[in-house]
Amino acid sequence: MTVDRTLWFETALLPDGWADGVRIALSDGRIAGVETGAARSGQAGGAVALPGMANVHSHAFQRAMAGLTEARGPTDDDFWTWRELMYRFLDRGGPDEIEAITALAFMEMLEGGFTRVAEFHYLHNDPAGGLYADRAEIAGRIVAAAGETGIALTLLPVFYAHAGFGGQAPSHGQRRFINDLDGFSTLVDRCRDLTAGMEGAGVGVAPHSLRAVTPDELAALPALAGDGPIHIHVAEQTREVEDCLAWSGARPVEWLLANAPVDARWCLIHATHVTEAEWRGVIDRRAVTGLCPVTEANLGDGIFPAAAYSRAGGLFGVGTDSNVQIGVAEELRMLEYSQRLGLRGRAVMAGPTRSTGRALFEHALAAGAQACGAEAGLSVGATADIVTLDAGRSVFSSRRGDALLDSWIFGAPSGSVASVWRAGRQVVKDGRHVARERVEARYRRALATVLG
């Protein structure tokens, strides 16, 4: 294998722990060699290197809504009132605007330390609910945004057919989401065509939720995923649990485990309101729970029992969901703090290393890669997805090893990622994406159209 170039880091988090003087050889976007205790040589990569993280759940178009749903309405506000605002937001915005918004979100993910995104894509139809000439028109715009920004893409076209349990007819606000199985099969095939040859890209499927699919429809979807991942919203809201009980006599995760072939390909998004029997069932199937702590806090969803689940061997990744804020550190911090508030303790997610940050980061790294059908880690043969911290910030002074992760997650300000390499190509330099000016300018024009 011909080495394209080498990067040298003062310290790096490798699969077996921290190492100093790390020289990483790159070839064709992958890691060709890792040497530790090496004298400085090659391109100086930075002071602190980490493997890139997968974002297990994103609705990129919702980035444009951030800050616009925080005014109290005439009644109590909750997830369901927020959803009505989101539906109205979708009345505007064509393919060009959606691509521009998606590119901004993907760019910010890279600047925040995410190098892959599982895009839970359900905005399929035009603003009137009609089909585009190409069913995958918007999917193609998502692929274009990923290509422009350089983020690795796990594209998850979403099957959405109903407004509620029992096959209820969809509402007017859901018109841009709706598909039937034949049309959805065509969409999935087109998504594979669009991502063919795209470095690191993959395609799975996503039944939106148990309320949006019938049991027969859900049974048909795993075959369409092939070897790809399967993601589903489940048990995010207490009303969802109550409605599922009324429909089936079972709770959502309970019903899913009893009626679907849940295994290591599956990622259960949120799963906020679960019993111990349910989350132990998820562990038995080796499925991943996709937690989105910032969005779950923003929407008032509740708190997943992550501490107990993790101690019992449960797998969790983190996602940015509605993208009100975007960053690895932000999601991991909110996850830990939500557990502290619920349990009235500290360092509740810490593992054997006693470092809360290390435990959070490594758990989310491994499970996030699994949930996206990808790989992670700075090891030979892996994709060269590398994130460095801005060691010039005072919060990192006199820190080594796990204290660097703890300080990043719990003490550093936003913007503490210095550089990012995705598949060996530097896409973030000095804290800014290399295409930020162009992407941000296009986003501003899109927002003038959508909100004007």
UniProtKB/TrEMBL annotation:
All copies of domain Amidohydrolase-related, residue ranges: 49-427
InterPro entries noted in UniProt: Amidohydro-rel, HutF, HutF-like_N, Metal-dep_hydrolase_composite, Metal_Hydrolase, Metallo-dep_hydrolases
This protein's UniProt keywords: Hydrolase, Metal-binding, Zinc
Cofactor requirements of the protein: Zn(2+)
GO molecular function: formimidoylglutamate deiminase activity
Principal EC category: hydrolase
Protein name: Formimidoylglutamate deiminase
Naturally occurring in which organism (per UniProt): Brevundimonas albigilva
